[in-house]
Design goal:
Immunoglobulin-like, 5-stranded mixed β-sheet, 3-stranded antiparallel β-sheet, 40% strand, globular
Length: 137
């Protein structure tokens, strides 16, 4: 009886946390996706806001509820946008790029920050998603 050797498929694990950012679900689901969770000071950060559910999501503004906060929840950045109702249908996404500059024009310092988005569900309730990132010198 012979032994059949087959290819071995390796599993590549990306930086901890990123693989958990986007999980598609039935019903209402909001996701925030970054390409990694650790960034260098001054590095551009690409942020995707994704409707990862099957229900439409609405947002109070054209920036899709995006707010970046210090760890103590003090807001430091949100894109300048008009106050119009924005929508994301199932599996639609929008991307923002943040240059690590606060709304007041100052460069952020190294540390841990929270990227948040709030959405309005079909039944009118609010859901919020938070992703934590780390900035290093």
């Amino acid at each position: 009886m012979g032994v059949v050797a087959g290819p071995i498929f390796g599993i590549i694990l990306y930086e901890y946390g990123v693989e958990d950012q986007l999980v598609y679900a039935d019903g209402t689901s909001l996701s925030i996706v970054t390409e990694k969770t650790n960034f260098d000071l001054g590095e551009s950060i690409s942020i995707k806001i994704v409707n990862s559910g099957t229900d439409e999501l609405k947002f109070h503004d054209a920036s899709y509820g995006l707010v970046i906060k210090q760890l103590d929840s003090i807001p430091i950045f949100s894109p300048i946008s008009s106050q119009v109702i924005s929508k994301l249908n199932s599996h639609e996404e929008v991307t923002f790029v943040w240059d690590q500059i606060k709304n007041n024009g100052d460069q952020i310092l190294e540390g841990t920050y929270k990227i948040t988005s709030k959405s309005i569900t079909l039944d009118g309730s609010i859901i919020e998603k938070i992703v934590t990132i780390h900035i290093f010198k």
